[in-house]
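Blackboard transcription, Thursday session:
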Amino acid sequence: DSGVTQTPKHLITATGQRVTLRCSPRSGDLSVYWYQQSLDQGLQFLIQYYNGEERAKGNILERFSAQQFPDLHSELNLSSLELGDSALYFCASSVGTSRTGELFFGEGSRLTVL
Amino acid sequence: QKEVEQDPGPLSVPEGAIVSLNCTYSNSAFQYFMWYRQYSRKGPELLMYTYSSGNKEDGRFTAQVDKSSKYISLFIRDSHPCDSATYLCATRVASGGGADGLTFGKGTHLIIQP
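(Written on the board underneath:)
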């Protein structure tokens, strides 16, 4: 158990809808990262927050947004969903900004868009 | 060309064999190199981390980085069926604040046959 909690584990929704994925980092970790994993693209970095502030952006679509709250939990909002958004979404956390690359991943939220 | 290339496999070897997993990368700015292991339906977990070129050993695992050829390797000695998983290589640049996500390969699916 990595200590990172993600909810929901599974989500099935329709095209055009909006969903919110939630992540609680490990106790004491200030950084939260969101990744998308699909069969064809692999694990893609979306966005990073550090202590409530956005620190880095990767391949995140404009239809997606995220935030980190004062209690350090984070939410990833996906809107105007398309079939291609079906994927596993992982949250990871680290104490700081992870110079060594040691990220602790949750078990993921599997999103299916029909 | 993707920044990190990795053969997806599957790679199937008999129990006890030495396993060699490899990645190539294109960005010469990458300085940190990691190997993550991902079991089915789980999030990735960090196995090995190396900085710049060289070897690093941890039990049955050896990570090797050759920056001149932009080649990353992971060797597993005395392989066990429990080593069956997907192995992802990951890299990142040495930015000052570490405020960037990792770039992952797509992963190699490894099967250790009992």
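Lecturer's comment: The mean pLDDT of chain A is 92.
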